[in-house]
Design brief:
The strands form two sheets. The protein has a six-stranded mixed beta sheet, sandwiched between helices. The model has no long low-confidence stretch (mean pLDDT 95). With 247 residues, the chain is an alpha/beta fold. 36% of the residues lie in helices and 19% in strands. Helix 5 crosses helix 6. The protein has a single domain (7-241), classed as putative 2-phosphosulfolactate phosphatase, CATH 3.90.1560.
């Protein structure tokens, strides 16, 4: 990371204005589960992911495309939306299901954060699954970096904060720059406290507790796996695909 580069963290989609991201490299984080699902889907051969802000936008796009090549995917409040092909469990997004398909993707928090970031210079999607590959991409990035945590309905989500802190820790070789923003300091500090038991802490987070009541532990266990995927999804012109040369 270049000495002149700044890094900041926003803790939910409601904690920033679009103009604060202009000209910056943005990393969108929604550990449970949107960013983990996007990373998994593209790793398993999905052609692209089109993030949408709500059901109306999803329906409008779905009506204008060939249904054989597109899947309507997503959730509201953790539950698969009625009539959708898939929910938001990354475990559903297997090669057999998503290979060669374009996914229209609508979630409670994650896709709203992605859509709100669209005015920035570059948008990457991060999860624990691909954290080191994202960091390696950021290390050659010259622009200031903003980590956008999706949070939960405008509130901080501990699992997203932990991943933001993990990214900062890796980018700065385990140190925190003296001129760091308050947002970066908080994420870095929380990560340092809990880094030896990330999965255990994520399981205790508010959102994990909500999900366990709905779907059990499997998604949470999967989303806590670190560096099992080596791709970086990138949003360009409203569509998330892999960087050139990947897969």
């Amino acid at each position: 990371m270049a000495d002149s580069q700044k890094i900041d963290v926003f803790y939910s989609v409601h904690t920033f204005q679009e103009e604060e991201l202009r000209g910056k490299a943005v990393v969108v984080i929604d550990v449970l589960r949107a960013s983990s699902t996007i990373v998994t889907a593209l790793n398993n051969g999905a052609k692209a992911v089109i993030p949408v802000a709500d059901m109306a936008e999803a329906s409008k796009i779905a009506q204008n495309v060939d249904s054989d090549n597109y899947l309507l995917c997503g959730e509201k409040d953790g539950i698969q939306i009625e009539g959708y092909d898939l929910g938001n469990s990354p475990l559903e997004y297997t090669k057999e299901v998503v290979g060669g398909k374009t996914l229209i993707f609508n979630t409670t928090n994650g896709t709203k954060a992605i859509k709100k970031s669209i005015g920035s210079a570059d948008i990457l999607i991060a999860s624990f699954l691909n954290v080191s590959t994202v960091v390696n991409t950021l290390k050659i990035q010259k622009k200031d970096i903003v980590l956008v945590c999706a949070g939960w309905k405008g509130r901080l989500a501990l699992e997203d904060t932990l991943l933001a802190g993990n990214i900062i820790h890796l980018l700065n070789n385990g140190k925190l720059a003296d001129e760091s923003t308050d947002g970066a300091r908080v994420a870095f500090g929380i990560y340092k406290i809990y880094k030896k038991d990330l999965a255990g802490v994520v399981h205790q987070s508010n959102h994990a507790m909500r999900l366990k009541k709905l779907i059990g532990d499997d998604d949470i266990n999967y989303c806590c796996k670190i560096d099992i995927i080596d791709i970086v999804p990138r949003l360009k012109e409203g569509i998330i695909t892999l960087q050139n040369g990947e897969k």
